[in-house]
What we know:
Helices cover 42% and strands 18% of the residues. The protein is built from 8 helices and 7 strands. The protein has a 7-stranded mixed β-sheet, sandwiched between helices.
Amino acid sequence: MGGLPVLRRRAECGERMDDPGSDVALLENTLRQFAWMNLLLTRIRYLLRKHVLRVMRERPERPYRVVDLGAGACETAAWLLGRAAREGLRVAVTACDHDPRVVAYARRRYGHVAGLRIVEAEVVDWAFGPPPDFVFGNHILHHLDDARCERLLARLAALPGTRVVFSDLRRSVLAYTLYALASLPFRRSFARYDGLLSIRRGFRVPELEAMVERAAADPAAWTVSRLFPFRIVVMRRPR
Length: 239
């Protein structure tokens, strides 16, 4: 492993998959491998069942608008729409990613899914239009530096009535060590290098709590909590 990095502060260097000049084949392999990790480790589906679908069931007769920020390959957005359809809920999801190569890949994989719109846009400055009912993101915050992360939280805090669910990485030596071992089989992708760097770019609870306190006019509507394994969950429940 070449020695453990110091994790007291967030790393500032960028990930290879965020480099617009990175190899497209390696990028697409990374998206495929991360899709499996998202399914097995991130628990984003658990969060969406508990904090999005549960709320929708309280008023199943109305339509819902959802935004997926930093949607990547869009497997989570497609899953959410499939689950909602099986429950008789009317849901439309706009999935947003800044990388045209990722958007093209997602459209090939999931462009046929009813109710899913995949757009290329800068996630921090994207114009939401009418406030959506829900905004969620899985592993998007750690791709942003502190200033842009805080700016995004401020923009979301200004949306009246919008519920927010973010799941991201909790920075820890144990998480880094376990991923360094678990990612050894990964080949022909950025999944090992970027995964380790992602943990170094991850957060600790007090850091995100401080961001929310600065960004939100209603910080009491926000919560920052831990979730096993090595997750941080940021949520907004408007009053």
